[in-house]
Write a structure and sequence with these properties.
2 copies of one chain form a homodimer.
Chain A (H helix, E strand, L loop, with lengths): L2 H26 L6 H8 L4 H7 L2 H26 L3 H17 L2 H11 L4 H25 L5 H4 L2 H21 L1 H27 L2 H13 L3
Helix pairs in contact in A: 1-2, 1-4, 1-6, 3-4, 4-5, 4-7, 6-7, 6-9, 7-9, 9-10
The structure holds a DNA duplex (18 and 18 nucleotides).
DNA sequence: GTCTATAGAGGGATAGAC
DNA sequence: GTCTATCCCTCTATAGAC
């Protein structure tokens, strides 16, 4: 076996383990993601987990980072093309539908819960979540550049609320699927409603609009 | 030892185990809540977990139900006294501050994550979550009885979003405390903003106000 | 009801052959 | 790099003494 061939196989093994780690977490939960189960899902020998990644936690952390980078990169162009709040809402919808269907939101929820008292995983999942937050925050800042909202709400906080909200609803989905569907639908309604109110504010005529905006600004004091 | 005395001790043991189960989940996460750790935290013998509750899962499920019933009962009067959206917001704030400080939100998050592939726990945590949702939904319905929002948003869905949102932010808190604080603050801002917009809508004068409401209603078609 | 002891399964991690 | 075999630990659950 040539040196190149050996390297290629090792790369394949490592990739298979990364992939299987997340798949296993999705199927069996964080607690069920043992080295044995992951290796079996990857079609690999259990000892290779430790040879390539040292510990199970390190494998899971690496899988979390690698996967999130890829998934976020997949949507980065769409985030950047969003010019209005409605556009961002549409991208958000698409991201959630796809990532939910792929099981990635459920995996993220399991990682967040499993991170309790697990520093290696906690650091990885914090970074991963931040990749999503940065995209949402950047886009929010752009589409709301002319909005009075900008002065009233911490967009970084809002971006984190949105991400955390999806995670929470995913966990609800695990114990009450109908409830989760209703929760998601109500947020859709709320988002559209807010967007409409903001638009209407600009259509009310300058006097009324300025009056409302002044009262909103009074909130921050 | 009299019969009464024996019963009293057994009740104490059972209560100690229930309490320790949730404390252990809070301190060590769902995966760390083994019969041994729980029993030690309760100052009891490990075998008593199985004598009194059969399995660890059944103990955890019982603890989840019992604790949630008590906690929700603690706030029921305050929910019922809330007459405006601002009142509800104030109660919600108080509930979150207290329950977060007691660690109960973190425990709920761990239970939700641990419920994956665990039917006994899943059923218990679904019921527990529902106790909170029912209170919020009832109160929302009452304080929004005269609001145009009632026709535009599924209040049951909204109540579930709020509960799920707190859970998500609690998980974020585990890996990024500053981010969680910002997320929570931004939701506060958003809630106050929405409440203000709804109030302003009524203060705009009847013509403008009716115009906006008509446009909002058009959303539902 | 409570205790000790232990069976039996599964998990992390390593040694050493190939 | 990969495999088998194995050590040692923790876990659930039960048996049986008290």
């Amino acid at each position: 076996m040539s040196r190149t061939e050996g390297e290629w196989m090792a790369k394949n093994t490592r990739a298979a383990l990364l992939d299987a780690a997340l798949r296993t977490i999705g199927e069996r939960g964080f607690a069920g993601a043992s080295a044995r189960h992951i290796a079996t899902a990857a079609g690999q020998n259990q000892a290779l987990v430790f040879y390539h990644y040292g510990t199970v936690n390190d494998l899971i952390a690496a899988a979390c980072r690698e996967s999130t980078e890829q998934r976020v990169a997949l949507y980065r162009a769409e985030f950047e093309q969003a010019g209005t709040l409605a556009d961002l809402l549409a991208v958000g919808r698409q991201v959630h539908v796809t990532e939910h269907a792929e099981g990635n939101v459920a995996v993220l929820a399991q990682l967040l819960a499993g991170a309790r008292g697990n520093e290696v995983v906690a650091a990885a999942v914090a970074d991963a979540l931040n990749l999503w937050v940065v995209e949402v925050e950047k886009t929010l800042g752009r589409v709301l550049a002319d909005s009075p909202l900008l002065a009233l709400i911490d967009l970084g906080g809002l971006a984190r609320s949105i991400s955390a909200g999806f995670v929470g609803i995913e966990l609800l989905d695990g114990v009450d699927p109908d409830g989760a569907t209703r929760a998601l639908a109500s947020l859709e309604q709320l988002a559209v409603l807010t967007e409409t109110l903001l638009t209407e504010l600009d259509n009310l005529g300058p006097v009324t609009s300025r009056l409302v905006k002044r009262r909103l600004n009074a909130l921050t004091k």
